Structures are given as C-alpha cells and as structure tokens.
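Supplementary Methods, section 5.1.

A reviewer requested that the exact input to the structure prediction be made available. We therefore reproduce it here, unchanged from the version used in the analyses.
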Amino acid sequence: MNETKPLGKTAEALTDTFMELVMERGYNAVSYADLAKRLGIRTASIHYHFPAKSDLGMTVLHRYQDGAFSTLEPLTPGDAQSYRDAFDNMLIPVRSLAKMQSASCLVGVLGAEFASLPDGLKAGVSQFFETQQQYLTRLLSGGRDAGAFIFDGDAEAMAKVIASTLQGAILIKKSRGDVHYMDSILDSLKAIIMPG
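The structure derived from this sequence is encoded token-by-token as follows.
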C-alpha cells in the first residue's frame, strides 16, 4: 500500500471535512457546496486543490487506508501473544469509530454506494477489503497454528465472518445511536476465536 503524500493546511482541512461528511451522509450526498459552506471558503478554492470530486474521494480513501492499516502488525510465526496483540491492534480503528455516534466506516459507506462510484474509487474500495481479508486470514491461520486462536473451519471463511460482522455492527451502531453497542460485539468476536 502506497503511503499518502503530506497535504497542505487547506487540502488537509478539505479531506478531513469531506471524510467526516461522507461517513455521516454518504459520498453521493456530499457536494463541494457543502464543503465550502462548512469551511467558509469558495468552491473555486476546493477545485484548485481537487479539480474533481473523485480526486478528493481518492485522497480521502488513501488517507483512511493509511490510518486503518497502520495498526496492522507484522506477525511472528509461533508466538501466540503476538497474534493476540495483532488482533487487538487491528480493532483499534474500529473501537475509535464505535465512539463516533453519527459516523459509519468510510469504506462501508462507499461499499454501500459502490454501483454509483467513479471507477477509481470502486477499485480502491475493492482493494481495501481485499487487503483487510488477506491480512485477517493470515492472522487467523497463523494464530491458530501458534495456539492463540481456536475456531472451526477455514481461516479465510472466519476472516469473512469477522470483517462482515464488524461492518454490519458499525451500521447498526449508527442507526441505534448507541456508542456502546460495539463493545459487546467486539467482546463476542474475541470470545469466538480466543481460548479462555
């Protein structure tokens, strides 16, 4: 995954605000006029930094990926605790998002709007989920071999269950307006795969 280039002050404010609005409303429901109003700038200023909405969308997605995947740790074969720690660290962004009452996962929101997204964003969303699944599959497979996890069946299938549960729980948390909803979900996921 390529690291995102540093942004100037205005471009960073634009990406942060756009991400926040998309996580609350959805990609198609946010316009440059919304951004201009929120930040007190002209839309021409936004176009200067991001000529097209898809340019801004791609920048936001890359920044989100960097944040989400920065917590993923290298795995140490045979070391059970390293796998447990890696699983906990993978959940750091989820726990952070769980505390944001009106927000959903950015890639979850984009995934829900997939058919109407520009091609570049579609590819980025698909790559995010593929990277997440590959890492989680390696984590579960190696962790089971090391004695960190216990579960029946295929590691890839369990990775899909965990990723899908997290995405669904984030949406339900938002619709219920309950920032504590995720706590029991995360505890249950750990209980499913980790021995007492």
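The two ends are 35 Å apart (CA to CA). These observations are discussed further in the main text.
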